[in-house]
Design goal:
Ubiquitin-like (UB roll); 2 domains; about 230 residues; about 45% helix; 6 strands
Length: about 230
């Protein structure tokens, strides 16, 4: 296949080209941003998305402040050679609001789609009751710390110490939940359950199991007569 010269791309009069970023894992559209020739070159050389900010008039790397970087897998261009599609691995969230995708609000509902279903399709936070979306965001960070260890990261330290240390922490946090429940204070219970959930997420990350798999198991059990009847 003949190698395409990025110089053949059609940048607009301002020297910019729109770049759609898509989650390489599930196809979700994450954001729309703009690149100039230099930010495209940096993106291709570093494997991390770089864009040109029209408001700040400068090149910036996605996640340079938040740490929510995008690791590039592939870059496509359209038939007119005036738009890019970047398939990337998103760390935590693409949107500055904390949402996974910048496209989390629906402008026009379809009359054929029930409101509840439409919200689930277009607003992931609605599925998890708003604040519970943080569980998936935290898990994204945990996966990143496992794949890309950081010296000052507590999570990376747990992974480095291995399964036994992770299991020890889960056991300790479970015991603290029991104590908190005995004490009866809501604030203490919430605090300790948060610790338990966090370390359980680390355990899932150790085994490469996503929280969605646990959710699917709960969904299978819900409403069924069995030893795990959750009705």
């Amino acid at each position: 296949m003949e190698r395409f010269d990025p110089g053949q791309l059609k940048f607009d009069d301002s020297g910019l080209i729109p770049a759609i970023v898509q989650d390489v894992a599930n196809g979700q559209v994450l954001t729309l941003a703009y690149m100039n020739a230099e930010s495209l070159r940096l993106t291709m050389e570093t494997g991390l998305t770089h864009f040109y900010s029209r408001s700040r008039k400068r090149i910036w790397q996605k996640g340079e402040e938040s740490g929510h970087i995008q690791r590039v897998h592939e870059i496509f261009f359209d038939c007119d050679e005036d738009a890019l599609l970047v398939k990337a691995e998103q760390v935590v969230a693409a949107c500055h609001t904390g949402h996974r995708s910048c496209f989390y609000r629906r402008l026009h509902p379809s009359p054929d789609v029930p409101e509840e279903l439409a919200r689930q399709q277009f607003d992931p936070e609605a599925v998890y009751g708003g604040s519970l979306a943080i569980v998936l965001q935290i898990f994204e960070v945990i996966k990143d710390r496992k794949a890309n260890p950081k010296a000052d990261s507590y999570v990376s330290g747990l992974f480095a110490k291995g399964q036994d240390q992770i299991l020890k922490k889960v056991g300790e946090e479970a015991a603290e939940v029991v104590v908190a429940s005995k004490n009866g204070g809501a604030g203490e219970i919430i605090y300790e359950v948060a610790d338990l959930w966090f370390h359980t997420l680390v355990l899932l990350g150790y085994h490469g199991i996503a929280p969605q798999e646990v959710a699917r198991e709960l969904r299978k059990r819900y409403g069924k007569k069995s030893k795990a009847d959750y009705r």
